[in-house]
Write a structure and sequence with these properties.
By secondary structure, the chain is an alpha/beta fold. It has eleven helices and eight strands. 41% of the residues lie in helices and 15% in strands. The longest helix is centred in the middle third of the chain and has 16 residues, at 156-171. The relative contact order is 0.14. Bound molecules: 3-methyl-2-oxobutanoic acid and sodium ion (NA). Mg(2+) binds at residues 45, 84, 115.
Length: 262
């Protein structure tokens, strides 16, 4: 099959077809997700926690991200591959270009994702031909500033700021936006107001697509699964079936349900 492009993802938003996404960090899961029909594979810096065993995403390096991106991009045929820019790798446009180029060239990513409304960096990368996915709401790379992994945008002023940042990120040329841990109502408003696809995680069912950390939905993450995730292994006949169940549940609008939503 032909590899999906950002134009295909935009067309899905326009057609009202939900976009399915999961994280992967290696070739075997990449191929499995691809065969299950997952549209977007995110090489998330969550690998710092679920693969490397750190208690945050901060220790992940650009070399780590390029290595895992290459493992994933080698093995998929159809899925669109997005790779995370790790902590402190995009402080200036020039630094961001140097690091994003490694994810694209060494890593084979089709798009890079960065946290926050860094519109100067986004504009510069897009100008250099590097597609960018924004990420708003809960920003795990800022966990030390926030003081924990908490829902964002509950107060009206904070919600307004997230909406304004989302519009600014689209204006800067981003091609996708991830919204993490925000009230469903705010995510719905942002999704309606943007022309680029919005992919939610803990952001309700009105987003244009959904993403989860693979190991959470396969129930192999130690500790508590976040409220917004779901154990798709519970009723599944194996890993591939769990991924297919997630894919269909998102396409049909059955996931996320109210119990996964803020
Ligand atoms: O790193 C990651 O897995 C992510 C998703 C949770 C959106 O950024
Ligand atoms: Na991430």
């Amino acid at each position: 099959p032909k590899t999906l492009s950002i134009a295909d993802l935009r067309a899905m938003k326009q057609a009202g077809e939900k976009i399915t996404s999961l994280t992967a960090y290696d070739a075997s899961f990449s191929a499995l997700l691809d065969l299950a029909g997952i549209d977007v594979i995110l090489v998330g810096d969550s690998l710092g926690m679920v693969v490397q065993g750190h208690n945050s995403t901060l220790p992940v390096t650009i070399q780590d991200m390029a290595y895992h991106s290459r493992c994933v991009s080698n093995a998929r045929k159809r899925a669109f591959v997005v790779a995370d820019m790790p902590f402190a790798s995009y402080a200036t446009p020039a630094q961001a270009l140097n690091n994003a180029a490694q994810l694209m060239q060494a890593g084979g990513a089709q798009m890079v994702k960065l946290e926050g409304a860094k519109t100067d960096v986004i504009e510069f990368l897009v100008e250099q031909g590097i597609p960018v996915c924004g990420h708003l709401g809960l920003l795990p790379q800022s966990v030390n500033r926030i003081g924990g992994y908490k829902v964002q945008g509950r107060e009206p002023a904070q919600a307004q700021k997230i909406l304004e940042d989302a519009l600014a990120i689209e204006q800067a040329g981003a091609g996708l936006l991830v919204l993490e841990c925000v009230p469903a109502l705010l995510a719905a408003e942002i999704t309606q107001n943007l022309t680029i696809p919005v992919i939610g995680i803990g952001a309700g069912s009105a987003c244009d697509g959904q993403v989860l950390v693979l190991y959470d939905m396969l129930n192999i993450t130690a500790g508590n699964r976040p409220r917004f995730s779901k154990n798709f292994m519970a009723e599944a006949d194996g890993v591939s079936d769990a991924v297919k169940r997630y894919h269909h549940a998102v396409k049909n609008g059955q996931f996320p349900a109210a119990e996964h939503t803020y």
